[in-house]
Amino acid sequence: MKKKIFSIILILFSFPSFGAINIKFATLAPDGTTWMKIMHEFNTELITATKGNVNFIFFPGGIAGDEKDIIRKMHYDKIHSTAFTGLGLGIILPEARILDIPFFFNNDSEVDKISDSMFDYFYKKFSEKGFELIAWSEVGWTYLFSNKNLSYLDDYPKLKMWAWEGDIIALKSLQNLGTNPISLSVGDVLTSLQTGLIDSIYSPPLASIAMQWNTKLKYMLKTPIVHASGAFLVTSKQFNLLSDGEKNIFKELCKKYMLRLTNLTRKENIDAIESMKKDGIIVVETDDKLNSKFSEVSKTVSKELTGSLFDIELLNKITDLKNNK
Known about the structure:
This protein is of the alpha/beta class. The protein has 12 helices and 12 strands.
């Protein structure tokens, strides 16, 4: 009898209580991926730490729509939280796209330095827009994939390259590389690869596998084109329903799990490349002409978007931080 009573008590404290504050979390990441496994672990500890007063309700795999759809639903209180890529962050706060300048970062250390140094700045900016920036949640190093050899710049105008619909940085970057991008939502990419509407994409390796895009592609360019940013946001309206103690618990747990996710994502992206190579993906090198073009594209895109997405002062600050000035 005592064991039964203990089991009942354990169950009661393992699930949200009646009247709990539900945080509806939407993501493009399919259920079963590392992303969602981490989120379920986060939720379990959150429920326990807040004695069932705060919990997530998950909408994975894009069932709540693309990032622009999620933002619209956040404004209407239908979704409260997500981990946005740079595209979603930029819809809310255009200057956040400065973190997605192509060929800007050289390694993870530079990324971590800028992320840590600029957190308070972006926290304030997102707060002014009605969102709480809780933690960074990067997407990771992003590569070009294609059914055609990507080694030679002269071949790029022949590529039927995908660009995420609404992503001005991707569009500018790919245009400056000489391609003619075809804008599509994430949900349309696999079908478009199958039908031949597109034959080239850009993606982190892990995402390519999760979305099954890699099954329709032959080549991957060894040099990444961008380090794709990401961040965990909650609407201020929903976050302010939490007590001060619950807010602190939520922030600490989120930072803990997003750091863990970042470390796992970095490792699994490397593992994903090896996995794809075993499945037949050919990783190709760049020639000198293409390497030179990458540097030119970074400068050109930065110049074209200065004044529209971000100002020159912010660009200079980020550049100086990266270069240890």
